[in-house]
Amino acid sequence: MTKRTFILIAISSCACLAASDLNAATIPAGTTLTVRTVSLVSSKDAVGKIFEAKIDQDVSINGKVLLKAGTKAFGRVQASRANPRKSEPLTLDLTSISVNGRNVPIKTNSFQPGSSPRTGRQAQFGHTAGTLLVSPGTKMQFQLVQPVTL
């Protein structure tokens, strides 16, 4: 390889990297992500179980759509009633979004679907009565706690 060819390849590589950085976009912390569940989630699901959702509304920053409605999102059961010794209200986190065929990790606030506890004892220990089911199509909102670069 000649010196000139090497220099041209190096310049082309740098130009490609610079162009990809220009296409990178950041969704700031505090942005609300509204999703609809695709899979069923139960208050008796084990902690760590993954669930699928889809972005329900376009996410726009400065007039530019960064996430389109229908984008796949994934979450996980953070707390549940699966372990009877440590029964907690169903708590969900959104953990990643699928962008251009790759999963981008995200950190959101936790979301507790369902109604508040019904008795003083349940409120004291954070329990709710019965099994809570989150049906496919249920709308939930999560807020990003860290910015996400796409």
Please supply descriptive tags for the structure shown above.
150 residues; alpha+beta; 6-stranded antiparallel β-sheet; two-stranded antiparallel sheet; 12 strands; elongated
What does this structure look like?
The protein is built from 2 helices and 12 strands. Strands 9-8-7-4-2-11 form a 6-stranded antiparallel β-sheet, with no helix packed on it. The protein has a two-stranded antiparallel ribbon with strand order 1-12. The chain is α+β, with helices and mostly antiparallel strands and 150 residues long. Helices cover 18% and strands 35% of the residues. The relative contact order is 0.23.
Task: Describe the secondary-structure layout.
Elements: H1 3-23, E1 26-27, E2 32-37, E3 41-42, E4 50-55, E5 59-61, E6 64-67, E7 72-79, E8 91-99, E9 102-105, H2 120-125, E10 133-134, E11 139-143, E12 148-149
Antiparallel strand pairs: 1-12, 2-4, 2-11, 3-10, 4-7, 5-6, 7-8, 8-9
Strand-and-helix sequence, N→C? HEEEEEEEEEHEEE
Shape: elongated
Summarize the main sheet. Answer: 6 strands, antiparallel
Please mark out the parts with pLDDT under 50 across 5 or more consecutive residues, or reply none.
Answer: 15-22, 116-124
**Percent range of helical residues:** 10-25%
Helix/sheet category: alpha+beta
Work out the number of β strands: 12
Strand order of the largest sheet: 9-8-7-4-2-11
* Mean pLDDT metric: 83
Q: Specify the number of helices.
A: 2
Rg from C-alpha positions? 21 Å
Strand content: 35-45%
Cα-to-Cα separation, first versus last residue: 36 Å
